[in-house]
Amino acid sequence: MRITHLELNDFRNIAQLSIDPGEGVNIIYGANAQGKTNLLEAIWLCSGNKSFRGAREREMTRFGEKVFHIRLHFADRERTQLISYDSGGDKRKLQLNRMPLRSASELTGEFTCVVFHPEDLSLVKDGPADRRNFLDIAISQIKPIYGKYIAQYSGLMEQRNALLKQIHRSGTGREMLSVWDEQLSRIGTAISILRQDYLQKLSPLAAGVYGGFTGNRETFSLEYESSVFRQGLPGQIYSEELIDQYRKALSEHLEEDIRLHFTGVGAHRDDIEILVNGISARSYGSQGQQRSCAIALKIGEAMLLKGVTGENPVILLDDVMSELDPGRQDYLLNRIGGFQVFITCCDTTWAGQLADGNIFEVSNGVFTPRDMVQLREMASSGGGCH
Hints:
6-stranded mixed sheet; 21% strand; alpha/beta; 12 helices
């Protein structure tokens, strides 16, 4: 899968853009706040996900304008397709191959991509919510129905927590808990199984990337930490036995839940343990190790998507080069074979390492193709963006 043509109008600081990216590595370089990340954000929206910056549509519309427009042409193994995205709140228009869509979520699984941006260091450094979100987005691209499971689970959680608050306040409503517990147990078990299965497939792929970064001098692994299935999910087969185990965990935690007005055990409390050389990267990893772990997770995600769907997702890497040593830079530039990659950066001193690719310079929202030879001359003279 690759983007063959992209048009933007009035997207953030980009008044108008029309580019034909290359099939391999595409370097987007320029000074800060010129529009590099805006390009990646527009591409990411076409995967059916919300902005990775947490922005609303009106915040992504160019100042003084009311709507933005995205036209993304992409080719998979069978044909070339077109995604049209016109913002506008209640009047938003989304189309796939000129057929109207009811919501952006219908694009999930149609155009797939993986994004890394600086805030993704939270995958390693911060609390479990970001790691669960990473899992949920990644699994949804492989199994779009999974997103519906998560939405259903969230709705059930809201209902159960409201009931817990009522029980604490008035002492009434306990007889209704079994209704919510039964549904939570069934969907929570399914979510847990899918998450553990995904991580078991992702771990060796991400470990391979991490090994490429470090010359195999360090090991990398992932473990799923379930608040219900603490001994893991043997066989990962959906069964009444596992559902009963989930239901029992809710029951055992009930009095504490009533006291806190919150469901304290379940899929919404699960986590991923990221290990380097067998120890926690979050607690003991250096900043360089943590950054390498986060990037390895994302590249591994892309490899797993390719293995499951048969299509190579587009890889978006935002501001990754400056914090990496030459060996890691070489890996990202030259050793991610078969994928279309977009890399944003400011400093171009590493450009001499790039074997082949397309270069675009960005200034005030204007994207200009540059010659590879010219960029290497800039790199050799110590040029770059400041």
